[in-house]
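Whether sequence alone determines local backbone shape is best considered at the level of individual chains. The sequence in question and its structure tokens are set out directly beneath this paragraph.

===
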Amino acid sequence: MLGFLSYSFLQHYWWAIISLLGSLLVFLLFVQGGQSMIFSFAKTETEKTLLINALGRKWEFTFTTLVTFGGAFFASFPLFYSTSFGGAYWAWMALLFCFILQAVSYEFRKRPNNFLGAKTFEVFLLINGVLATILIGTVVGTFFTGANFSHNEMNFSKWEHPMGGLEAIFNYINVSLGLAVFFLSRVLALHYFKNSISHDAFDRRFSKSILMNAVPFLIFFLTFLISILFIDGRGYDAQGFVSVVPHKYLYNLLEMPLNTAILLIGVVLVLYGIFSSLRFPKRQNAIWFSGSGTVLTVFSLLILSGYNNTCYYPSNVDMQSSLNITNSCSSEYTLTVMSWVSLIVPFVVAYIAYAWRAINKTDITEDEVTGHGDTHIY
């Protein structure tokens, strides 16, 4: 069946898959958001251990989704992978190093004879929680603002800036998205804690913490969203010629009404999750509203960056080197074979949902983390 699909359809299909994986990754960054609060939200060692163990139940989901996202991007759009990962070396290495710190910390924080001490690994978790979220958002921001690379006729790429991708931090649009992701991850984390931890002291601090993180999230997100609607984008024609298109992303919103509807629904769900958690602090289901809203919002933004003849990775050095879903994708045969494999994705999602439900069957309590339960302690 899939062999009869057009090459153009496969290109768009795989950008949609990449967008979905990226949106799921941003939702799962609530783990990082929670790690960024282990010293501020928790007031005692027991409370800190409660937070870390609640997050420890889910950190592997985030890590696995990151690897899957990277692998799918490499297989479907290899020119982006070679250009960005090969050129923006320091940005990607900093991000990967943050995730290495996370993996090591969960495994060794409570390990017997830990000569570095639990505090060291808690600091590592804090570093991962802050830097990973900001870096991911900042790097994704370059999908709209562009990066400093060029290609020759053999598709060999060259990065044209000595900072190797870290120069993205000098663009306020990129940083706005990075900070929006950071504060959103903290909001999601608070909703997750409410859903997963039974602890009265946390409940008393919950509403104040939600408000303190929701307000800056909305400020930075609106700064990013409004800004990209008024910047020039890069479009391409049927021959692949790239040109500057003023207000390209605004036109994309107007010309792709279904995607715009998805964006609006996603934003409304995130806002409703925040509002419901403030209005009804005893409810535990806000994570499902804010989480599903996050997935829809990020998915629609990534679609906005790649569909409608838009260059999803504009070059600020050589406009014709800008990457789009037609000039950076794998061969038709590769995309077709991968599309057959992608049919198992619903089963993987079902397994993740089953595992999530099984892990969260009961709230985590103080007894578990003080040694009175029979579960693994992180």
Notes: The radius of gyration is 21 Å. The chain has 15 helices and four strands. The first helix runs from residue 7 to 28.
